[in-house]
């Protein structure tokens, strides 16, 4: 307990799925958390569940003004901002010849431009605090190509590259920037998808709490010498092919 005592975190896409688990884990370990999402009702419910150490704010990550308002809420309610978890993301799946133009624009706006906006918005508060940790949730699709999700993969590769460039820019302010690359995780995003894990080393889908434990590490001072790095939590998906049934 207490691994992030005194820290204030802002989590985009925090109302449900992995984002909600990240919020619970950080509060459990002593942080105060601002939950940002376009899903107002579940966001308010989660804030009530977590109690006095959580607040909800409506956050459309494609709106820089929403980002600025979310940062201001963290400052006014909790006195500053130390951690950003850029968690919000969507998936549009289709073969490239059928990939919708509007789907491309939307996925880049949410998954990549939204991350850029979040980073831009938190810099003044983190500089004032003397440092901070920015955690950008990418995907294994940001490390290797996946069939049928060209836009998603492009956006997640973009998050990976953005992370590295920003880490170089912000290191002088003691602001660390890292990317997290989950594999198949048991959330609503993968419902209905046939994601066999027979060729994955651990032969299973991950639990969101397993990603949250990594988020906690990166939010804490335990990761104080890590920046510009990729942290993979995929059960061995990107390692190679395990023998079926072994």
Q: Tags for this entry?
A:
single chain, seven-stranded parallel β-sheet, alpha/beta, 246 residues, globular, 6 helices
Explain this structure:
The chain is of the alpha/beta class and 246 residues long. The protein is 41% helix and 15% strand. A 7-stranded parallel sheet has the order 3-2-1-4-5-6-7, with helices on both faces. Strand 4, helix 4 and strand 5 form a beta-alpha-beta unit. Helix 1 packs across helix 6 and helix 3 runs parallel beside helix 4.
Tell me, rounded to a whole number, the average pLDDT.
Answer: 94
The total beta strand count reads: 7
What Rg do the Cα atoms give? Answer: 17 Å
Main sheet: which strands, in order across?
A: 3-2-1-4-5-6-7
Number of helices: 6
Low-pLDDT segments, ≥5 res: none
Largest sheet: 7 strands, parallel
**Estimated share of beta-strand residues:** 15-25%
